[in-house]
Amino acid sequence: MGYREFEIAGKTLTVFELDDVSNSATARPLTGSWIWDSALVLTEWMAEQAQLDFTFQDKTVIELGAGVGLPGLAAALLGAKRVVLTDIETLLPGLVRNVEANGFGDRVEVRELVWGSDESEVSGLGELGGEFDLVLMSDVFFDAEEMAALSKTMKKVCGKKTRIWAASEVRPWTVECLNELTKEGFGLVELPREVGKVRSSSLLLGNESFLELDSFAIFRLKPPNQKDDGHVTAVDHACPKIEEEEAEDRLCF
Ligand SMILES: C[S@@+](CC[C@H](N)C(=O)[O-])C[C@H]1O[C@@H](n2cnc3c(N)ncnc32)[C@H](O)[C@@H]1O
Q1: Which of 38, 161, 206, 213 has the greatest count of CB atoms below 10 A from its CB?
Q2: Which InterPro entries match (predicted)?
Q3: Domain spans in the chain, listed from the N-terminal domain onward
């Protein structure tokens, strides 16, 4: 089992990837077994926000479709007071291992959370509905048919002031997914970040990973139950319905 190390805010984060969990139907490794580049992009962006004006210290955080959990673990490293890493059951032991490897057992929990599940099926999450300050997602916009279930889950874990940050590689089907989320009532803005450069993730120790940064986007989603509340900055603006052909260029709102 390999691992990757990251330097974030002067501290080292260790994330093990998995080579022994596979889909029983296809025998292929589960997609959550390794760190996707979107997770690197989101984590780097989170570290930048922490250096600017975003405070993790007083935040409760949930990561949906966490895989091996890099962004959620990074939120803990950046000081979040409570983090819940969620995914399908098969991936939970890997997440637990990564929590333990970084000594976050007192602040980070691992829970099964299948999108669209009823709260009663999600042990321990029910009482947290609406309590999370921040929802993190990376590379979960891959199947438009899954978005209704993902929306249902997002609505359950979002309160009036919850922020949702999601990173995605921009692929043609990303647009279909985002359109489904806007149909469910979510507001959507692409957050500004440096694009157009090809460089390694500055967090990854060893620097072996090079990303085409303009292939990725980070979005802030606004839950349907939130009115304009002053959190949305001048760079945020209403998202028109995205046309699929726009994905050929990139997602600009
Ligand atoms: C492409 S992987 C991304 C993993 C991780 N977020 C990353 O960026 O490294 C998609 C993740 O979504 C999870 N996932 C897919 N469908 C799901 C569902 N219906 N309920 C919960 N998790 C799901 C997968 O198990 C996997 O961990």
Answers
A1: 38
A2: Methyltransf_16 (IPR019410), SAM-dependent_MTases_sf (IPR029063)
A3: 3-248
Ligand 1 geometric centre to CA of 183 (Å)? 21
Percent helix, percent strand, percent coil in the chain, to nearest 5: 30, 25, 40
Least confident of 20-29, 164-173, 219-228: 20-29
Tokens coding 225: 């139950």
Q: Which of 57, 56, 76 is nearest to 66 (CA)?
A: 76
- How many other CB atoms sit within 10 Å of the CB of residue 66? 30
Q: Ligand 1 center to residue 215 CA distance, Å?
A: 19
CB of 136 closer than 8 Å to CB of 76 = no
Are 137 and 108 contacting, i.e. CB atoms less than 8 angstroms apart? no
What is the amino acid identity at position 72? G
Q: How far apart are CA 175 and CA 79, in angstroms?
A: 33
The residue type at 243: E
Ligand 1 atom having least distance to the Cα of 115: 20
Residue with the two structure tokens 């990757």: 4
Answer yes or no: are the C-beta atoms of 107 and 34 closer than 8 Å.
no
In this structure, the number of other CB atoms found within 10 A of the CB of residue 41 comes to: 24
> pLDDT (tens digit, 9 = 90+) per residue, 111-156?
999 999 875 555 556 555 557 999 999 999 999 999 999 999 999 9
Ligand 1 near 36 CB (within 6 A): yes
pLDDT digits (tens, 9 = 90+) for 202-250: 566 665 556 677 789 999 999 998 866 544 432 333 333 344 444 444 4
Q: Say which CATH topology domain 3-248 has.
A: Rossmann fold (3.40.50)
pLDDT of 210 reads 64
Whole-angstrom Cα distance, residue 92 to residue 105? Answer: 14
